[in-house]
Design goal:
Blueprint lengths: L1 H6 L3 H8 L1 H10 L3 H7 L4 H29 L1 H22 L3 H11 L4 H11 L7 H14 L5 H9 L2 H26 L4 H10 L4 H16 L2 H30 L5 H27 L4 H20 L5 H29 L5 H29 L3 H15 L20 H11 L5 H12 L1
C-alpha cells in the first residue's frame, strides 16, 4: 500500500494530497452541524425535511453531473462542483439565522453532486486498475487523519459558545474549498477518456444526451454488480444520513453526553479505522471484495441496536458503538468505491456513476423525512428505524442475494421484490396482499 502511494502521480496524487482541505473543516463542523441548526430554532421535523429535500435535489444534480462531466470535462466539472457545492454553500451556512437560510444552503450544497462522478473519473481514468483499491484506501486514511483536529471545535465551544464557533468553522470551510478549487484547476489535467467524451458529445443536443442517459440507465440496471452494489450503497447512505444528523442531538439531549465529549468521538473513530486499515488491509486483500462488505453491513445492524439500548450516561456502550461502527465503515467504504469504479462502463463512466448516484439518492430520499418525524416523537426512534431498515434488507436477502439485475433483460421495470421491500421500509402497507398485487401489476 505504501509502495502504491509512492508511485502515484498526476491527478491521483494531487487529489489525494488536497483532500484534507475538505476533510479538516468538515470534521470540525460535522459533530456540531445539527446542534447549530437546533440552536437557531430548527425543529426535528424540519431537520428531516431538510434531509429529504436535499436528497431529492441531489438526484437532479447527480443526473446533470454526468452530462456536465461529458460536456465540460471532468477537470472543469470537479472545480465547479467544489466551488458552488461547498465554498458558496458554506458561506450561506456561516450567515444562516433560520430554517430558510439552511434550506438555501442545503440546495446549494446539492451542487456538490455535480462533481461526484467527475471527481471519481478524474481520479481513476488514468490510473492502473491494480492501484484502485489502494487509492481509495489512502483517500479514506487521508480523511481520517484530519479527524484529529476535531477536538479543537470542542475547546473553542468551551471558550466561546456553539453558534459563533460553528459560524467561524463554516467560514473557514468556505475559504479552504475555494483554495481546493483553485488548486484543482491549476494542477490537475483532463483525462484521456474525458477528452474523448468531450469530442464525442460536441454538438450533441441536451435532448440527445438525456436519451443517451436513459439507455445508459437501462444498461446499468441490467448488470449483476448493480444488484449487489445499489442496496449496499443505499443502506450506507441511510445509515450515514441518520447517524450524522441525529446522533449528536440524541447523545446530547437524551444520553447526557456533553458537547466536548461528542467532538472527541471522531478521534476514536479515526484511530480505529486507521489501525484497521493498516493492520488488517493486507489480510483483507486476500479475500474477495464482497465478504468484507457483507460483514460490514452486519456490524451496522449491531451498532444501531447498541445505540437504541444504550442507558443514559453510559460512555462504555457509546465507545463500543463507535468501535464497531468504525470497523464497519473501514470494511465497507474502500471496497464499495473500488467495486463501483471497476464495474462502471469505461467508455461512459461519468454518466454511469452519476445515474448510479441518482438512483441511490432517489431511493434514500424518503428516509430522512421519516427519521425527522420519528425524532420529533422520541429521539431514540430514528436509530431503531435505521436498525429495522438494515435488518429487514438483510433478512429479505436483498444485500446478499444473487439476483441477476434490477431490470429484466427485455427492458422491464424495476423488479417487484425490491420495490415492495423498499416500500415496507418507508411506510408499511395497510393491506399487504393488496400492496403486493399492486406492485406485481406495475412490474408486469
Amino acid at each position: 500500500m505504501v509502495a502504491t502511494l509512492r508511485r502515484l502521480k498526476g491527478n491521483v496524487k494531487i487529489l489525494i494530497l488536497i483532500e484534507p482541505l475538505w476533510g479538516i473543516p468538515y470534521n470540525l463542523i460535522a459533530p456540531l452541524a445539527t446542534l447549530y441548526m437546533v440552536a437557531l430554532g430548527v425543529t426535528d421535523v424540519q431537520l428531516g425535511i431538510l434531509l429529504s429535500a436535499g436528497l431529492v435535489c441531489q438526484v437532479f444534480f447527480a443526473i446533470g453531473g454526468g452530462i456536465m462531466a461529458d460536456k465540460l470535462g471532468r477537470h472543469r466539472t470537479t472545480m465547479l462542483g467544489d466551488l458552488f457545492g461547498w465554498s458558496l454553500a458554506c458561506a450561506v451556512w456561516a450567515i444562516s439565522g433560520n430554517y430558510w437560510f439552511f434550506l438555501v444552503a442545503v440546495v446549494l450544497n446539492c451542487f456538490e453532486q455535480v462533481n461526484q462522478s467527475a471527481w471519481i473519473c478524474l481520479l481513476v481514468e488514468d490510473a492502473k486498475q491494480e492501484d484502485i483499491m489502494h487509492m481509495f484506501t489512502w483517500i479514506a486514511i487521508g480523511g481520517l487523519v484530519t479527524v484529529f483536529i476535531a477536538p479543537l471545535s470542542g475547546l473553542l465551544i468551551r471558550q466561546f459558545s456553539l453558534v459563533p464557533v460553528a459560524r467561524g468553522i463554516y467560514a473557514l470551510f468556505s475559504v479552504t474549498m475555494l483554495f481546493k478549487s483553485m488548486i484543482t484547476w491549476r494542477f490537475c489535467k483532463e483525462t484521456k477518456p474525458g477528452r474523448k467524451r468531450m469530442e464525442d458529445v460536441r454538438g450533441m443536443s441536451l435532448r440527445a444526451m438525456l436519451t443517451e442517459s436513459v439507455q445508459t440507465a437501462k444498461s446499468l440496471l441490467q448488470k449483476r454488480a448493480t444488484a449487489f452494489l445499489l442496496p449496499i450503497t443505499m443502506l450506507l447512505s441511510v445509515t450515514s444520513m441518520i447517524t450524522t444528523s441525529f446522533s449528536a442531538l440524541y447523545m446530547n439531549s437524551v444520553l447526557g453526553i456533553s458537547e466536548q465529549w461528542i467532538t472527541a468521538f471522531p478521534i476514536i473513530t479515526a484511530l480505529v479505522q486507521i489501525t484497521f486499515l493498516f493492520a488488517l488491509q493486507r489480510l483483507m486483500d486476500r479475500l474477495r471484495l464482497k465478504p468484507p462488505l457483507a460483514t460490514g453491513v452486519l456490524l451496522l445492524i449491531v451498532c444501531q441496536l447498541l445505540l437504541v439500548l444504550c442507558p443514559p450516561g453510559s460512555i462504555g456502550v457509546i465507545a463500543l458503538y463507535v468501535l464497531l461502527n468504525s470497523c464497519a465503515m473501514a470494511m465497507i467504504y474502500p471496497r464499495r468505491e473500488a467495486l463501483l469504479a471497476k464495474h462502471m462502463d469505461p467508455n461512459n463512466r461519468a454518466r454511469s456513476i452519476s445515474i448510479f448516484g441518482a438512483c441511490n439518492l432517489l431511493l434514500s430520499a424518503p428516509f430522512g423525512y421519516v427519521a425527522g418525524r420519528l425524532s420529533g416523537i422520541d429521539r431514540r426512534l430514528p436509530f431503531l428505524y435505521c436498525y429495522c431498515v438494515v435488518h429487514h434488507f438483510t433478512r429479505a436477502d436483498v444485500v446478499f442475494s444473487r439476483q441477476r439485475s434490477f431490470v429484466g433483460r427485455r427492458g422491464g421495470k424495476i423488479k417487484f421484490d425490491f420495490l415492495y421491500k423498499l416500500s415496507c421500509m418507508i411506510k408499511p402497507p395497510r393491506k399487504a396482499a393488496a400492496s403486493r398485487r399492486f406492485f406485481a401489476r406495475s412490474a408486469g
